[in-house]
Amino acid sequence: MLKKLRRLFLLSGLVLTLILLLTACGTKNTPEPVDEKTHTNFTVAGSGSNLPITQRLIEGYMKKSGQTITLPKSIGSGGAIKALRNNAIDLGLLSRPLKPEEVDQGLKQIPYARVAVVIGVHPSVLEEQITGDDLAAIFKGTKSQWRNGQNVILFSREEGDSTNEVLKKEIPGFKEALTESLEAKRWQVSFTDEEEAQAITQTKNSIGFTDSAALAVEKHEIKPLLFDGIQPTIENVEKGTYKLSKDIYFAYKEPLSKEAQTFLEYVWSNEGQEIIRSAHGIPLGK
Description:
Blueprint: H1 2-24, E1 42-46, H2 51-65, E2 69-70, H3 76-85, E3 91-94, H4 100-104, E4 107-121, E5 129-130, H5 132-140, E6 153-157, H6 162-170, H7 174-184, E7 188-190, H8 193-202, E8 206-211, H9 212-218, E9 223-224, E10 226-227, H10 234-239, E11 245-253, H11 258-268, H12 270-278, E12 282-283
Parallel strand pairs: 1-2, 1-3, 5-10, 6-7, 6-8
Antiparallel strand pairs: 3-11, 4-8, 4-9, 4-11, 4-12
Helix pairs in contact: 1-3, 2-9, 2-12, 5-7
């Protein structure tokens, strides 16, 4: 409960900070025309799952255009929704589809990449692969040791996290195992992708979750496990042999600012699409 309250407090603070900063800069709901030679700053913020690929896209765009884009640390998909409602950001980053009530509030989304969801372990773990049954058993506490006799340490994600939604869909019995483990408070829960990655890299005999782009861009010392005998690569996602994947989205309110429109045009360009692939994501096109 304390961790949930801490996360809500942090998200609220980050969103409020964005609102205050942009208000101080004179941000308006409908942007005024900007001279082509004037480069104004705009902000993109949201889910940690989007950050590795989006950071690469922003670096390429700023180098080419000279425009500045602010990309804060993760405020989560929920934080992005709040910030968009308050006109605090130009583009939100979501690792899940918009909910019907969010669409009804005038928000729109467009997917731009697909990443492989990775079940990863600390390099001290000898195992090279895992099954859905194994993972559910770890959550339930019925599989408690690795083959070297060391105790399993699981870093879970919170209920409603986009990775958990993928696992619920693809692994029979996972939903029940997750719910039971959260109610029992059996495992430590991470509330951001960065927190999860740090926990795994710093803890021997641990297991948790990341994705193909985070491993490629952020170079975490996490060993990816084969799932049901298949490597967690974007090539295997494209072939349909690796089943754990999720889409990441840009979310926005209309009218979209001129600066944001120009950035999205870069994302859909050949250069932008190649950046996504080089960051171990699958470009989804426009």
